[in-house]
Amino acid sequence: MFLNPKPPEAPPVPTAAVLLPPQPAQPATHTPTQAPCACHHAPAPAATQAPTPHRPLTPLVATGAGAVLAIVAVGVVLTALLTAVAVGAISVTVCAVVLRSLLTNANHRR
Length: 110
Description:
The chain is mainly α. It has one helix and no strands. It is elongated.
């Protein structure tokens, strides 16, 4: 069994059609039309206008989240670099102090 593994059998494919629930019909909007008048004034603006499509907020939220993530990532990287430089400076300082004390003691012993 371990030397000759068999692939698992594929699940059976459903043959029945999937029925979606019927969509409710949208109500028809009726705009009454008036006969043009004989006077020479500007026509009245339309009382009902088509609703303006609203922009989805999803791209804006995703852009904002991406910007925050980028700022946090840059902050983490800069903090890590600053820490590495600080640790390197401290280690160089400790080495300098140790070498100085060793050289000073060697000169005093003679």
